[in-house]
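Fill-in record for Steroid receptor RNA activator 1.
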Amino acid sequence: CVFPPGTPPGAGAPAASTGSPPKSVGPPPLGPVNPALRTGSVRPNAEEPPEDCRVPADAVLIPLHKALDACRPTVQKQVCEDIGRRLTVLGDMWAQGKLSAPVRKRMNLLVQELQQCSWDTADEIHRSLMVDHVNEVSQWLVGVKRLIAEMRNLPTGELTEPQDDKPEMAPHQEV
């Protein structure tokens, strides 16, 4: 499975301490931003939020529901129903505009990682959502976490090949 571009290994790791703390800490230095720190875009920040807001609900909800459907044969009915209820809450909050742009964007990234079978990265995104936006996500994110856990246990073929394709392949192989 592939990690998202621009994510270096060990990103987010704290810097090593060099001993005693500095004697005085002032405001950050003023001046031009180091070009190496730029993301490659020279657009002003005012243009970036609309991209975050344009994540369609279906881009997140449809793959999550498909993942739940893939889990149904191997997961207890009650667990699937709970996950389904929580996904409904997610969809309702999304439709009512109750989810912030950062939450929608991270959920889109989480779904992309699930589709690539990047379970650990999906878990990291889940944790960051829970830490940074607990009041916004607490009603439904538990269901997403359980779905991630159940998807880990599925055979990889169930995630990549629809069930309907298997019967069609057999007759072609006999010819």
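KEY FINDING: The CA atoms of residues 96 and 134 lie 18 Å apart.
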